[in-house]
Amino acid sequence: MTTTPLLELHNINLVYRALPALKDICWAPLPGEQWACLGPNGAGKTSLARLLSNQASHFSGGYERSTAVAEKGVAYVCFEQAKALCDRDKKLDDSEFRADASDPGTTVQSVILGGQAPDERFEQWVARLHIQHILQRGLRFISTGEMRKTLLIRAIMEAPALLILDSPLDGLDLASQQDMRKIIDELLHSDMLVLMLCRQLEDVPAGISHVMVLNEGGIVASGSQPSVIANPDVIALMNPPMPGLGELPTPAPRPYELPADGPLVMLRDVSVSYGDLQVLHKVNWTLAREQHCCVSGPNGCGKSTLLSLITGDNHKAYGQDITLFGIRRGSGESVWDIKQKYGQIDTQLHLNYVRGMRVVEVVVSGFFDTIGLYDDWGDQQRDTANAWLAALGMASYSTQGFDALSFGLQRMVLLARAMVKSPIILLLDEPTLGLDGHHRTLMLRAIDHIAANSDTRIIFVSHSAGDTPACINQHLVFEPREQGFEVVCRDCP
What is the pLDDT of residue 196? Predict the structure, then answer.
């Protein structure tokens, strides 16, 4: 076997948004090696992947590619890729201007094949990841997990010399995670160089031979997997102490009144279809005032669709038996009236928010339900925002730039943003997605803190009912049936 590196990085430095993202990176993987890049949120893993996939042009140092890498290229599977594809489809969609029209946009099959004809290899990978049923579905109408499978198959079909996988198990249900692990193990035993970006020690597969650990843009450890994983400094880096939580601020005045009694949410025989695709069928669900609910189920079952009925973002909500906060949907209440009563975190909101704003400004924007600040704000709103940052252990970040924080800390800032107006319901769509173990624990602890010390009720969406905060006392489970899914509601102690 040749000892010539597949690529070589020599003292690479990269600045992103005026901040150092990579510092003096040296790396030269040899044929037969398989690598993981490990580090907490904000360590520099994404910056390294962008550099390797030719998405970062302004860097210093040397980047040399072998003939194989130069000819076959690099494939990079990540959430940002999914967002770019969906944003493109949204811009091209003109169905709202045409009567009785629905534009599916770019289909899953089109994304994978890129204009090529389906072949046996395509059919095999589609079958192994169980996405045959979504091949003709538009990208905007598939789940996060289904999108990840789609992008992985596309990358494999390209047969690159280097395949970069950014947290490939994120967003997948348990069955899909098992399928993905088998495929990753197969890829790790192929001729392809695989670089896995991992946020937790336990995410590094056994088939990985070498590990590089990043922190604050620099390499702090590199070598064989057993030696790096057992390094006490690496263990300490990946398991930092938890910050203390503070007392919750006095609830903000609510510009509305709730009925004295009755449930917060009530759905009766609610169904949602898009053409021939039925997403929800005769769903019955009641969320009482003392309940915190976990909504769980496999990829593509309809969890996000259910949330969109509550937020008013889904026009299918109108004309159905849906009562929110004591008011029947379609009784004259506007979407903005509804928005006053809930706070929300989801991956799409997070991706849209990375821009040049201070942390306190991001939190204040929660008063206006905007992505950015477009209205005047005063001392009272600033003080409330800072009080929520303090309550969540984030006071020291108030004046920092939002985009200067790690992904995990940004998610905590968005939790403060969701809470500044003291919402009746906090909607959390996969709030731990993309977080390392430390920030995942921090997020779940903060949610329990809110549930125990306020009258805000939690609706927590997860692929697994076991990956939830301790406050959950109701489960809404999407259970597979011969035709689609049945939504089953179970109360628990």
Answer: 96
CB 259 within 8 A of CB 266: no
Residue 147 maps to which CATH number? 3.40.50.300
Q: Give the total number of structural domains in the chain.
A: 2
335: left (phi over 0), alpha (psi -120 to 50) or beta: alpha
Among residues 351, 300, 298, the alpha carbon closest in space to that of 143 is found at 300
The C-alpha atoms of residue 49 and residue 286 are separated, in whole angstroms, by 45
Pair 471, 391 in one domain:
yes
Query: Does residue 473 sit in the same domain as residue 393?
Result: yes
Domain that holds residue 50: 7-238
**What pairs with residue 487 in β-bridges?**
478
How many angstroms separate the CA atoms of 12 and 20, rounded? 11
In the predicted model, what is the mean pLDDT of residues 447-461? 95
Task: Indicate if 221 and 298 belong to the same structural domain.
Answer: no
pLDDT of residue 106: 84
Which residue among 219, 238, 257 closes a domain? Answer: 238
Distance of alpha carbon 97 from alpha carbon 243, whole angstroms: 50
Global pTM value:
0.79
Q: Tens of pLDDT along 341-368?
A: 999 998 778 877 766 789 999 999 999 9
Highest mean pLDDT among 39-53, 127-141, 249-263, 416-430: 416-430
Q: Are 406 and 42 in contact (CB under 8 A)?
A: yes
Letter string b/e over residues 116-149, b meaning 16 or more CB atoms within 10 A of that residue's CB = eeeeeebeebbeebebeebbebbbbbbbbbbbbb
pLDDT given for residue 277 in this prediction: 73
pLDDT at 100: 42
Choose among 311, 302, 342: nearest CA to 477. 302
250 within a domain of the structure (yes/no): no
Nearest by Cα to 149 from 277, 137, 161, 160: 137
460-484 CB burial, b ≥16 within 10 A, e <16: bbbbebeebbebbbbbbbbeeeeee
189-204 pLDDT, tens digit per residue, is 988 999 999 988 888 9
Handedness of CA 72, 218, 80, 211 (dihedral sign): positive
Q: Which residues of 391-401 are buried (b: 16+ CB within 10 A; e: fewer)?
A: bbbbeebbeeb
Residue 475 in tokens: 């489960």
Q: For helices 407-419 and 379-391, what crossing angle results, to 10°?
A: 130
Per-residue pLDDT tens for 119-163?
A: 999 999 999 988 998 998 888 778 778 888 899 999 999 999 999
